[in-house]
Design brief:
With about 290 residues, the chain is of the alpha+beta class. Among the domains are: about 50 residues, no CATH class; about 100 residues, Band 7 domain (Tetrahydropterin Synthase, Chain A). It is about 55% helix and about 20% strand. It has eight helices and eight strands. The strands form three sheets. Strands 3-2-5 form a three-stranded antiparallel β-sheet. Strands 6-7-8 form a three-stranded antiparallel β-sheet. Strands 1-4 form a two-stranded antiparallel ribbon. β6 and β7 form a beta hairpin. α3 packs across α5. The protein is rod-shaped and about 170 Å long. The N and C termini lie far apart (about 170 Å).
Length: about 290
């Protein structure tokens, strides 16, 4: 035996004791995480539930017939992609369904249903087909939020029996098959074209009606104005009749206004004993003065 053996034994003994205590602690305690629980089973039967986060004392863990099951209480989600649904009119609608859920009773979630995630998937699929099959594509497209609430209420009874609470359900995407989409777009384009033609025809008729009404009103106003003109002239002449000089001056001006110098030659100022207008027109015109050299 070497002289270093007692020294090595003295150094390894505390380490071995510490390692043994640590292994004993690990074997007799359980670490419970936040937002999680641990179900303790003995011979396959549930006997205890550890809920408080931290380190829990469980000496029976070392027994071979004791097993532990970890159940998460965190919020989880389920997504159903491209669910094909035949609506009330027979149109194939493709929807994506999103479900947010949380386990509120870990015992029911573990023992009341086998394969919780798969069972929840089947339940949501069946409820979606039943709910959307009673509606048209237009209703599905416009009422997605309301349909999410109806879907959540429809599956609530079954999920509560499984210890699961549905926090959110909504239709993430709504679409149609490509050939159905093309037919619907063609129908919409045809309806828009017909509506445009109807609007143009209605507008043309409205414009023609307004133009006709305007022409009638203008003609009526013109006729009324033309009827008022002679009356106004008559009233003016009546007032001028009270002033003979003014009336004579007006008549003279009116007679002069009728002359068109560029069309005719008039002679004014000849008396009854003098030359008449026709005779004055026969007088030859003097030649223009010649230019002086």
């Amino acid at each position: 035996m070497t002289p270093y053996f007692p020294l090595a034994l003295g150094l390894l003994a505390p380490l071995a004791i510490a390692l043994g205590l640590w292994l004993l602690l690990r074997a007799t305690t359980v670490e419970v995480e936040d937002e999680a629980v641990i179900l303790v089973e003995q011979f396959g039967k549930h006997v205890a539930t550890l809920k408080d986060p931290g380190l829990a004392w469980l000496p029976s863990r070392m027994l071979p017939w004791v097993s532990l099951k970890h159940v998460s209480l965190r919020r989880d989600f389920l997504q159903l992609s491209e669910v094909h649904v035949a609506d009330r009119q027979g149109t194939t609608v493709i929807v994506d369904v999103w479900i947010d859920y949380r386990i509120i009773d870990p015992v029911k979630a573990e023992y009341a249903v086998a394969h919780l995630h798969e069972s929840l998937h089947s339940l949501v699929m069946h409820a979606t087909l039943s709910l959307l099959g009673r509606r048209t594509f237009y209703e599905i497209l416009c009422d997605r939020s309301e349909l999410g609430e109806l879907l959540k209420n429809d599956i609530r009874t079954d999920t509560e029996r499984w210890g699961v609470a549905i926090e959110l359900a909504f239709l993430q995407k709504v679409s149609l098959l490509p050939e159905v989409s093309s037919r619907i777009l063609s129908t919409i384009a045809a309806r828009l074209g017909r509506a445009r033609a109807e609007l143009l025809e209605v507008g043309r008729l409205a414009v023609a009606s307004i133009e006709a009404e305007t022409s009638v009103k203008v003609a009526t106003l013109m006729a009324e104005a033309k009827g008022q003109y002679p009356l106004a002239i008559g009233r003016a002449m009546t007032q001028l009749g009270a002033e003979p000089k003014v009336l004579a001056a007006y008549n003279e001006l009116y007679r002069l206004s009728l002359l068109r110098p560029h069309r005719s030659t008039a002679f004014i100022g000849f008396g009854e004993d003098g030359l008449r207008a026709a005779e004055a027109a026969m007088i030859p015109q003097p030649p223009p003065p010649s230019a002086s050299h």
